[in-house]
Structures are given as structure tokens and as C-alpha cells.
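Two folds, back to back.
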Amino acid sequence: MADRRTGSFGQHEAMSPVDRLGTWWGRAALRRRVGTLAGRRVADLGCGYEATLGRSIAAEVAHLTLVDLSLSDELDSLPNTEAVRGRLPDALEGLPEGGFDVVVLSSVLEHLDDDRATLERCHALLAPGGVLFVNVPSWTGKIALEFSAFRLGLSPPEEMNDHRRYYDPRDLWPKLVAAGFVPEHIACRRHKLGLNTWATARRPASPA
């Protein structure tokens, strides 16, 4: 399937109230599942044009890498931050293997033609003891998201039309295993009233 995107989320129009609520909820889930980000090397992949999460954590992390098709020029001036512009997963090739303590994929995988290649690259980017956090819409969420976008006009229809797939835990878990993560170190659950699926996948720490 040809990639239809010509820009990043939030580039061409302001976030809707539904989008803002979802972003806040996802950010809260990240902190609950991953813990403090202070002093950690973080990569936010598919971060959105304004990189809302990145703006909120740049001052506390050791280093922040933001990746998306297009990024606001303002992000280049954030402290401790590198902005990488490009299409996933190709844009990840220049990032250092084992260079990150936390990798974030929030509301991203559902838009990609090749979700497996992206997850495999995330596995390679993580340092020993590092953790990948994934947040994706579920099949139940598909109903709510499309109703909001197509019937109520509360979300951008083009974002829903760009979705390639949806994920319940039984869909996401095997993709994480195929990407190289070990079942013992994967947690995968529904959240947001069942509208989304989250997962954490950790690389084991190096033996002492």
C-alpha cells in the first residue's frame, strides 16, 4: 500500500478536544508503566509535529530524540533534544543501536505500512534494561474513533483514513515476540475503557 501521509499529526490543523484527551491519557499511561524519565535517554518515534510529550519532558531527560515526517522548527531549540525528520522506519537507521533507555511508540504503529520492521528496529535501539512503550487503538477503539471522526466531526477524518490496522493484545503481543522481545519481559493489556491497547517490552539487563 502506498504511504498516503504528507505530514505529521497536528501539522495542518490544531488538535481536537478528543485528540488532546487521548494524548493526555496516553502520557499518563506512559509514566505509570515506564516510571520516571528523569536522567534517561528517550526516543519518541512518530511524536507529532508539535511533539507534545517531548516538550513536557525535554528538561528532565538526559537526552531526547524526536522522530517524525515533519517537525516544528521550535523543537530544534529544546534542551537535550535531537530532532530527526523522516519517514518511519527508514528514519531510524541513523540512530545508535543500544542508545536508548526508553523508546515510545504512541498512536504510531497503526499508521505504518511495515509495523514489524519498526518494532524490530526499536528492539535494536534499546540499551540493556531499556523499555519500549507502545500505545495503539484497539478494535473496539476503531468503532469509537470512526464515529467521532466520520459522524461527529470531533477528530480529523484523514487520520482515521490513514489507519492500516488495529490491535488487541492478541494482535500486538505476537508482533513484539517476532521483533525479538522475550515473552517474559512483555506486558500487554487494554486500557482507556478498552479503546486502546498498551504494551511494555523490555530488553533484559546485561548480566553482572
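---
second:
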Amino acid sequence: MLNLPISFCSDVSLGQLSLPQSVIANLKIPLTSYFEINIDKSEVHIGPYIGILIDKKKGNLERKLNILDDYVSSYEKIGGSILAFSLEGVDRKTSMIEGLLYDPQRQTWDKGIFPFPSAVFKTIRWNAGWRSYFQTKVGKRVFNDYGFDKWEMYEWLHAYSNLKQHLPRTAPFGSPDGFELLSQFQDVYIKPVDRSLGKGIKKLSKKGEEIYLFEKRGNHTVTIRFKTLDEVQVFLQKKIKNRKYIIQEALDLQTYQGKLIDFRVIMVRNSSGNWEQQGIISRYGRRNHIVSNISSGGRAESGGATIHRMIHTKADEAIAIEEKMKSIAIEAARCIEKRGIHCGNLGIDMAIDQNKKIWIIEMNNNNPDHTIALDAGDRQLYESTLENLMLYTKSLAGFQEKERN
């Protein structure tokens, strides 16, 4: 921030601001960007200036240029300066950042060293130290800064009776409640609390006098047979070691030709800060696999089409199910807010059982992969999701969306 005298001049058109070259150089204002001006009492704000934290390593930035281009496809609505950067590019001593700044006139990303942005769109995992540092620099103007895990999500949502009924029974592995779930249910899932993409998930099934453990290894599912639950406990404790896991009741979910079906509900905040359900994408797992993730060989399509066709519902009933999923997702997002967690980008995984009841499986808040919309052939959904996220970041920087002629 600089203290400068402000004067009105007839040579400058309404809505324009003239600055000395020394000020432009001092503030490193790129002349190729299109800025907006906000006047708040004695302060003039030029912006927006927003950052996309896209990687941990500087060397990976230029490899992600195609992805970065997707974030600025609606630049005419965003405007200002957009900086793509990595954690490695942040100099804590100088509060300067080595990264790539978008040039909207040439549509290129140019390397340089720049000041800290006013708001940050975080797309990677980080530790508590980095979270604390960014809070000192931009405060609440960085979202999805706290990555909650599966068990935290369960505890938080379980406190609300209207959401509790949509949660499968869950308990920490190794706890008395966890062993009770192992004993009570014929089938349970054993999941790492902090991993995504179906990694590390195992399924336990009781069949007669024997117990079978199924786990994914590469593109294959491996089966291990046990005689007692004690044997299972000992085996898992050695395999899991220090990583935290949960045990979750396996639901009798809708399937198609032996393929698991679940749904990704894409939730983002818009420029007004309100939650919007961008869309619902269904995922079909590989035949007889224990997960439905696309990365594990599944496929995706429009959630509405799946609900209508696979669950054999009439059009109005399918629409009602979609609306119910939307309502549950928005309520879940708001409940996370009540915990003091600043989210703006969520991928909520839901499923529908044989009785057409809707269940919340998990909530991805570290960096939900919205390319699932592309997997389903819906580029418009993908682009609108990124646009809303960028416009929300813009609003955090103090500038609301404005259409350009």
C-alpha cells in the first residue's frame, strides 16, 4: 500500500485512473491486464489481483499451462492480474512470489517475481505451517485452506439429525466401536481417513464360516481369506501401521451389471459467496471392483441420466431425487462452515441404495477434480465450475463480477 495524493483531472475520463510510472513500477502493475477500480473512503483499490496455488514445486508450473488456460477461459469476467504459483516459489522473507502471471492480450503466462496476491485459490494439499503463514498474509481470503479428513467429516455431520440419517455407520479402526462394526455387519469398508481416488480402500465380507478381505492392487482386486475377526485385526494392524483408518458399513447400493454406482455432487461458491450445486456426475466402477473411481478404471456420465435409467424411475421422481441430493449437499456444506472451516470448493460423494435412500459417502475438500465433468462429456459444466471458483476468488479480493462489453 502506498500513500499518495489524489486529484481529479479533466484530462482523465470518468472511471479511469492515471498513475505515475514510478508507482506502476513500484507496485509491479502489469499494463497488459484489465483492471477495475474501487474507492473506499480515502483508499483506491486496483484489481483484482488473485493467485492460483497450483503446485508445490516451481518446476511443475510450466507443465500445467494447459490446465491454467482453463482457469482463465473467462478472463473477460474476472479481469485484473492472475498469478499461478507454487509453494516453492514463495519467499517468506521478502513476501514476494516467483510464478507465472497471465497476460490477457497475448494469452500467455509470463515468468517473474511478484507481490503477494490479495486472494488465493488453493488447489493443493499443504501442512499446518503453510496454512498459518498464508493466514498471516491474506487472512480468510484463501479458501479450502484446512483439509478435513473422512472421520472429521463424519463427526461434524453426525451432530445434525437431518444429516445423520444420511451417513453410513462409521467408527475409527482399532476402537471398540470399530470392532463392533466388524462384528455386526456382513460387509464393511476399511478406508484411510486422508486419501482420495479410492486409494487404500479395503472391503471385508463374511461368507459362512470364513471372512474375505478384498483390496485393490493396481488394476486388480486381491482376495485374502481369514477364519476369525481376530486374524483380520492382527493382519490389518500390521498392514496399516501408523496410518489412520475408519471402518464403514457397506451399503446395499444401486449397481449396474455388477458395477458400483455413486455420484459426485460438484459444489462451489459463486461470486456472491453463496453455495451452488454446479452439477451431478455419476461414476460406474469396473465390474466387481470395490471402488467406482475413474482413476481405477470406472467411467462417468450425467447423474440425471443415470438416476433416470438405472434406478428405473419416472422423470418426475428422478428430478425429485436430484433435488434431494442438491438439498443434502448444500446443507452439508453449510454445516462444515459452522465449524469455522472456509470452503469454496467441494466434491461431495453420494450414493443411492436399493430403497432409493440417499447417502453421503465422503466430502473431498482438498482439491476436488472437476475434470470428472470432462470424463462425462460435459465441458460446459467443467468450464462453468472453474469460472465460478475464479469469480469467488475475485470477490474475496474485494471485486464483484462485472460483465464487459
